[in-house]
Amino acid sequence: MNQEFHVSSLVVLTQPPFRHQLAQQIATLEGAEVHAVSDEGKLVVTLEGPSQRPIMSAIDAIQAMPGVLSAALIYHQFDELDVECKE
User: Fold this and answer.
1) Contact, 7 vs 87, CB < 8 A?
2) What predicted TM-score, i.e. pTM, was given to this entire model?
3) How confident is the model over 5-60, as pLDDT tens digits?
């Protein structure tokens, strides 16, 4: 049985006064990790998940957060993982 593994990276532009609060909110999303926060309000974020759907849901959730100006997808990769079924 094959399973997929997806990894995406984003640059999230925020209103600078809210950057740390938003970084904390984003980090609570399943599969999300915030790697950098700049003084100008830019966040570097990665998202991991078993399919494209949770990645897109997380991006939508980030874009809907008050204080987020934009969330730009920079990179997306997926691999198929071969998982043996034991009977």
Assistant:
1) no
2) 0.86
3) 999 999 999 999 999 999 999 999 999 999 999 999 999 999 999 999 999 999 99
DSSP state of 48: E
Q: Which CATH number fits domain 2-77: 3.40.50.1220, 3.30.70.920, 3.30.1050.10, 1.10.260.40?
A: 3.30.70.920
CB 68 within 8 A of CB 1: no
3-state SS assignment for residue 39:
coil
CA atoms within 13 A on the CB side of 30: 9
pLDDT in tens, 64-84: 999 999 999 999 998 887 766
**CB of 46 closer than 8 Å to CB of 53:** no
| Alpha carbons 11 and 30: distance in angstroms, whole number | 17
Distance CA 37, CA 16 (A): 10
